[in-house]
Amino acid sequence: SAEVETREFQAETRKMLDIVINSLYTERDIFVRELVSNAADALEKFRYQSIAEKPAFDEHVPLEIVIDCDDKNHTLTITDTGIGMSKAELETNLGTIAHSGSGNFVEQLAEAAKKDLSLIGQFGVGFYSVFMAAKKVRVQSRPASGEEGHEWSSDGAGTYTIGPCPGLHRGTRIIIELKEDAQEYASKFTIERIIQQYSTFIPFPVKVEGKTVNTVQAIWARPKSEITDAEYNEFYKFIGGTSDEALYRFHFSADAPLAIQALLYVPKDNFEVLGMGRMEPGVNLYCQKVLIDQHSKNILPEWLRFLKGVVDSEDLPLNISRQALQDSSLVLKLKRVLTKRLIKFLGEEADSDPKKYQEFWRTFGIFIKEGVTSDFEYRDDLGKLLRFESSATEAGEMISLDTYVNRMAQGQDAIYYINGPSRAAVEHGPYVEMFRQKGVEILYTLEPVDDFVLNHLGKYRDRKLVSADREDLDLSKTTGTPQAEPPETPKEEPLSQDALNALCAWMKEVLGDRVEAVKPSARLVDSPAMIVNVGGFMTSSMERLLKASGQ
Ligand code: ADP
Ligand code: MG
Predict the structure, then answer these.
(1) Contact indicator for 299, 292 with CB cutoff of 8 Å
(2) Phi, psi at residue 60, to the nearest 5°?
(3) pTM (2 decimals)?
(4) Is beta strand 206-208 parallel, antiparallel or unpaired with respect to 65-70?
(5) Confidence bin at 79 (pLDDT 50/70/90)
(6) Rounded mean pLDDT, 158-170
(7) Is 358 marked within a binding site?
(8) Mind listing the UniProt keywords for this protein, alphabetically (predicted)?
(9) Residue 41 and residue 35: Cα distance in Å, rounded?
(10) Could you identify the atom of ligand 1 that is nearest to the CA of residue 125?
(11) Which residue has the least CA distance to atom 13 on ligand 1?
(12) Does ligand 1 come within 6 angstroms of the Cβ of 172?
């Protein structure tokens, strides 16, 4: 009809579609998972909205996902009775890529997709995966507001059409004409298998050819003792949109002072290092099993955005608005209790399996450090989770601040650290000489950000954290146990006081404004000179970092 318009996809979307269409189809099944999870999201949104306002129409249409397989015509149809989309929503949601991250998002996604296209859902572009299997897709949708419906259609190659589609029920129907080599997806056995694999925890009935194939249950609300490892793993795969297993899982429930049920997972990988920019938080907030805040920014601090899972509290009012969630003191309390418990959990895991914790630390330590520098509230608790190499560890091995404090030398009242680009660089530098000679352990902070972290922390268990490049460093009252006798060096006559003063004066003259002063020191063992930090507020590594960032 004349009312059907043809539109071009946004350039980014075209690139995205190109990647999808030309990628290896090793995990093609995931397009079903993505579409079913979109349908479930739409149902959750509708359910949440209808708590506050009476539906405009189709009030009694049941909340469900219906899948039809037509293996004669090679089509697969997925229908939901969720929130639906208006014409404008169809165009923005299915024609553009909304992403706040870096400009070359699509290139980076292309890189990631080459390795594992199943991650596509993590980046908010899951819908487009349908073009792995589709020759043509039609999306018919009518929004819950009651506006008339529209049909969007595309073969994924540059353009789409959009036009009116009257007479629809509330929700969305996706009709997929399958490619020649993807006709297995018109078989109900294939679809049942995929739903069982990826979508068993969808909290609405998923019906394939009239039969409900998922087991509807909120796993987090069941007693721990009744849940098997396999069920926990399945749920992680579902909630994390992954086929991996989690590194840690934390199932927590409490009745007082607040009713909380939380099931949180630490993934194996840190998606932010793929260069995809900041990830959205991965924890959803429920009240009595009704989703009220997806990817919740309110229920956990930002630096815990790498966690996946759910939090449910029946103390929350069901019809709480997004704005009210942000300001709610109850949500703040939930957040505090959960965060403290989670930090405690990680600490216990670190004690019981240090090797595994080291793996966690390598992948997610950066988030813990972010917590120390950005979140005053948990700073001291987080100190326990930090790990560093030290003069007393093997290369690559790390210790906690507790381990350090517990074996401090006699008379030692501070925790010492020194930053450097590598362990070798630190060990060949002048700052550690005196520590080595006296047998006092010193932490090696090998990441540029580390000195900021320790500077923010300030002290740990009442011991000051002190960078070894401070001018006023004094180990004279500390008696450690030297590892080995220092090698015999031929003793030469020391310079006379006058000669020393003259040398320092000459050096100051040559160096001019580049140094504040040149002074004799008793700290040096083998090196002839070293640069120290006056005032000691910023360590030299922090100054370098600020300079590099142009401040
Ligand atoms: P994401 O689900 O991560 O937002 P997708 O590419 O899967 O990314 O979907 C893009 C958007 O399209 C969704 O955010 C949603 O607004 C809309 N959408 C997709 N499928 C449906 C559906 N079945 N019902 C309503 N809206 C949908
Ligand atoms: Mg999606």
Answers:
(1) no
(2) -95, 5
(3) 0.76
(4) parallel
(5) very high
(6) 96
(7) no
(8) ATP-binding, Chaperone, Cytoplasm, Nucleotide-binding, Stress response
(9) 10
(10) 6
(11) 93
(12) yes
